[in-house]
């Protein structure tokens, strides 16, 4: 039995299957008990292997994506977004926009859930087997700038091109120097009509000159980002944090009035009565 298990282990490893001999034995025992045919046994064996590989691939894609683990669709309250916005978010979960290399732009005030929506869509894309990369815009700009200084910007852009969708969080918070603005524009231009980008920003498009600092560059950037894009207008939403603070204030009972303690007269002994 030991020799057979050793040989089976070697064979499974040779054909890059992840079953252990013990798992094969358990499956064979189940097949015998249920009277499965050889074809049914083989189907169950391959099905287990496919499930295992799918889970391993999902874990790898999730790890490489750097997505916030807690910002999933299950944790998102779609009811607070209104019917139109909720329908847009639900449609994005299918990932069909990736086939058109379309972009998604979530525009809203701070705290309205833009980052959560972007991350939740990213999680859904990974579940479908798509490659996703999450980064703050500030981090990406510094990453690209360092690559440019080291004369490896084309290589870094090619690495990012491996991802079907790059999620840039908080593009509106970044104040760029000329060099930083140029590498960000280069990144967006490289992905135009080839790969998708999801952007979150607290700036409406008329304010994007604060990012790119030049009217012509701003116009060119907006043209590339907005063309073939889905706009999630979240400007009218209340801040998550403001709403939670209001709810907490409404449910917190007022503190009881302080009890005034009688004071003994100066020079008197309170123990004497």
What does this 3D model show about the protein?
The protein is 53% helix and 10% strand. With 273 residues, it is of the alpha/beta class. The chain has two domains: 2-64, no CATH class; 67-245, P-loop containing nucleotide triphosphate hydrolases (Rossmann fold). It has a five-stranded parallel beta sheet with strand order 2-3-4-1-5. Helix 2 packs across helix 3 (38-65), helix 7 packs antiparallel against helix 8 and helix 7 crosses helix 9.
Distance between the termini: 95 Å
Helix content: 40-55%
Report the total helices: 12
Task: Please write the string of helix (H) and strand (E) elements.
Answer: HHHHHEHEHHEHEHHEH
CATH secondary-structure class of the largest domain: Alpha Beta
Strand order of the largest sheet: 2-3-4-1-5
Assign the CATH topology of the largest domain. Answer: Rossmann fold
Largest sheet properties: 5 strands, parallel
| Low-confidence segments | 260-273
Indicate the CATH architecture of the largest domain.
3-Layer(aba) Sandwich
Gyration radius, rounded = 29 Å
Tell me, rounded to a whole number, the average pLDDT. 87
Shape: globular
Backbone structural class: alpha/beta
Q: How many domains in all?
A: 2
Proportion of strand residues: 5-15%
Fourth-tier CATH superfamily name of the largest domain: P-loop containing nucleotide triphosphate hydrolases
Number of strands: 5
